[in-house]
Amino acid sequence: MAIKDEVTDKYSLRGRVYNKIREDILEGRYKNNDELKELAIGEELGVSRTPVREAFRQLELEGLIRIVPNKGAYVTGITAKDVKDIYMIRSKLEGLAARWAVSNITEEQMSEMEENIYLTEFHASKGHLDQIATLDNRFHEILYEACGSKMLEHQLREYHEYVQKVRRKTLSENKRSLASTGEHKLIMEAIKSGDENQAEKMANKHIENAYKNMVKNGLKESYPEA
Amino acid sequence: MAIKDEVTDKYSLRGRVYNKIREDILEGRYKNNDELKELAIGEELGVSRTPVREAFRQLELEGLIRIVPNKGAYVTGITAKDVKDIYMIRSKLEGLAARWAVSNITEEQMSEMEENIYLTEFHASKGHLDQIATLDNRFHEILYEACGSKMLEHQLREYHEYVQKVRRKTLSENKRSLASTGEHKLIMEAIKSGDENQAEKMANKHIENAYKNMVKNGLKESYPEA
DNA sequence: TATCGTATAATTGTATACAATTATTTTGCT
DNA sequence: AGCAAAATAATTGTATACAATTATACGATA
Questions:
Q1: pLDDT averaged over consecutive 10-residue blocks of chain B (226 residues)?
Q2: Which residue from B minimizes the CA distance to A88?
Q3: How far apart are CA A108 and CA A119, in angstroms?
Q4: What pTM was computed for the model?
């Protein structure tokens, strides 16, 4: 499971190495089965093998590389199917989060969620894409925090981060943001009204729709098939 | 997320350290917020700090410890609520696995699954608890392999392993194994008959029932509340 | 006594050194 | 030339060394 940014400090050498390699993999700069050599990467980033090795171990745990003992580290990469699977998994888990949020969300979180949606609607009407993206991410963050489960929060944050990196490879979605905000609103309203089933269902659909949109925008073309 | 045993080699020093600490945490030998010191653990296991540090990084990623830069590594531990959450998450994901298995399972996997169930029924009638446990684990492994998703397989294996360690702390379940086998059979039959909805539903319920059984057998008493 | 500041020790972060394993090249033979 | 074996180089695994940071102990001062 991996990884929160809160935990993986970005400012240690190891943290920097980890983030760099991770990005390179998620954004497709490394290809599947590429071999990563400790010394080469260390030199490229100006650090010794020690932090590189530690970063490798974490990447291995995440499944982004695989380490063959005494041989080397090889990029596992992610395929179009992997992305699809992650969205389907995430759909289920966001559903759970929404369900649990119904009985765990605090007043403050509820307020922030409502505010988030009103703000998003405003920026959507003005076409402020950057702000919309930030608010979109924040909406999901609030949901994760509100679900009241350390385990689920951890897992969802990991997948969400995964997907964000991936999303940069597909075209930026302008029309989608309108629909997306509407879906956020439905989730929020279900939580506010205490309807667990509805909250779960709306969250399920929201992620499924996000995936469908990615497919339309050329996901398949961005990733290897197998 | 972590971690497959296939990947985390058990025979390197780092692998041994990783497995040792992980077990100690999951089986409750370390308490929440215990501080882990690299040198002390290294000496205890007769290794230097290097493999210990690498193991720490993996454990951090899994969420089992948290590392505060320049300060130390602290056990995060798992509470009774964490265990519950994991079961609920797993319920959803096993459901997905069963659904996907319907269209991805191979003939061989299907045969092994059927054989697994008949064998389990046999051993259940004889009261062979060890064999039942092995077959139970294997049933889930087959399901994970059959779902046809690297991502889901990875995730489920991690949670399953998590839970197995935890389960040792609760009493061994004798009557449960009969019901459990029956549930396996329902999942298998749904997959065999091509009924995706039924497969998902039965897998959901199976995990939920497993959790209910754990609660009856004293889960709460085995783990800290908060 | 209480508290602050400084010195000391303990601990982590990183780099380097050495050992073990694996990959590559060279060499010798047919 | 082609192959095998040996030598060499490259790479990983682990241990140690050193630097930087944090924790602890001690003592001076009010």
A1: 40 91 89 94 95 94 91 90 96 98 98 97 88 93 97 93 74 72 97 98 97 83 70
A2: B96
A3: 16
A4: 0.87
